[in-house]
Amino acid sequence: MELGLIGLGKMGGNMRERIRRAGHTVIGFDRNPELADVDSLEELVGKLEAPRVVWVMVPAGGPTQDTVDQLAELLSPGDVVVDGGNSRWTDDVKHAEALATKGIGFVDCGVSGGVWGLENGYALMYGGEAADVAKVQPVFDALKPEGDFGAVHAGKVGAGHFAKMVHNGIEYAMMQAFAEGWELLEAAPEVTDVREVFRSWQEGTVIRSWLLDLAVRALDDDEHLAKLKGWAADSGEGRWTVEAAIDHAVPLPAITASLFARFASRQDDSPQMKMIAALRNQFGGHAVESK
C-alpha cells in the first residue's frame, strides 16, 4: 500500500525504512529537506492515491494540531489520518471529531520501540473505528515485531494513546526501581562489582528484562556512570498517567513516586537519575547531560 509519513526524525525515519522493507511505498515529508521525499504537504497528498492514509509523527501539542489542521484541508472523504506521536488521548477525540466533519477518519497509535524498532519492530497500540483501522492494517503489520504479539486494537479513539501513556508510566516505575537498586549497591562497601551483579541478573531471575539488559549495556559503557549528570527529563506522559489515576480514583504509588523522582533530579545531581538518564539514552536515544 501507499503511506504518507510526516515527521522523519529518530522514530519516523526508521519507521519509513521498516515499512519500505516490507514492500510498501512511503512518501515522507519533514521540515528538514535533507530527510524529505517531497517539498510540502500538498505535494505529499498529491502523490498518494485515494483513499489515502497519512501518518503523523511530530511532537505532541501545537505541531500535531497544526499538521492535523492542514491535512483536514488537503485530504478527501474516505482518507485516514494516523497520529503516531505521543499525543494526549483527550486531543485524539478533538482531532477525530474535527476530521469527521469532512468525512476523514482518524486513528491514534501509541508507538514503542525507540531506536531499536527498525530491527526489532515496534509495539503498537491503536484506537479508532474498525473500518479506519482496516485501512491502516498493512502498515501496522509491517511495523510490529514478528510473531503473534506486539500490536493491539485497544478500543475507540483515544485508547491507543491512553494505553501508551500507561505503558510509559509503568516504564517510569521500572526504571526507578533499577536505579534505586543500583545506587544502593554502589553505596554498600561489601559489594565490589556492581556491574557484574546487574549482569548476573540477566539469566534465571524474575527481574530479567530488556530494561535490565540496557542497564548492563550502559554500565559497560561507563561502569559507575561517572560521565553523566544525574538529571532526567519527563516526556509528559508520566504526568498524564498520574492525572488520569486521580480522575479515575486509581492508586498509583510507584508510578507517582517515580515521576516525583524525575522532578528531584532537577534539584540535585542524583545518582539514581544517572541510571534513568542512561537507560533513556540506551532504549530511545534520548539526550543526556554530561558533567
Protein architecture, described:
This protein is of the alpha/beta class. The chain has a 7-stranded mixed sheet with strand order 2-1-3-4-5-6-7, with helices on both faces. It folds into 2 domains: 2-157, Rossmann fold, CATH 3.40.50; 165-284, N-(1-d-carboxylethyl)-l-norvaline Dehydrogenase, domain 2, CATH 1.10.1040.10. It has 12 helices and 7 strands. Helix content is 51%, strand content 12%. It has helices at 10-21, 41-47, 62-74, 89-100, 117-120, 130-143, 159-187, 194-200, 210-221, 237-248, 253-264, 271-284, and strands spanning 2-6, 25-29, 53-56, 80-83, 105-112, 123-127, 151-155. The mean pLDDT is 94.
The H/E string reads: EHEHEHEHEHEHEHHHHHH
Spans where pLDDT lies below 50 across 5 or more residues: none
The global form is elongated
Instruction: Tell me the strand order in the biggest sheet.
Output: 2-1-3-4-5-6-7
Tell me, what is the CATH class of the largest domain?
Alpha Beta
CATH architecture grouping of the largest domain: 3-Layer(aba) Sandwich
**Percentage of helical residues?**
40-55%
Binned strand content = 5-15%
What value does the Rg take, in angstroms? 20 Å
In CATH terms, the superfamily of the largest domain is NAD(P)-binding Rossmann-like Domain
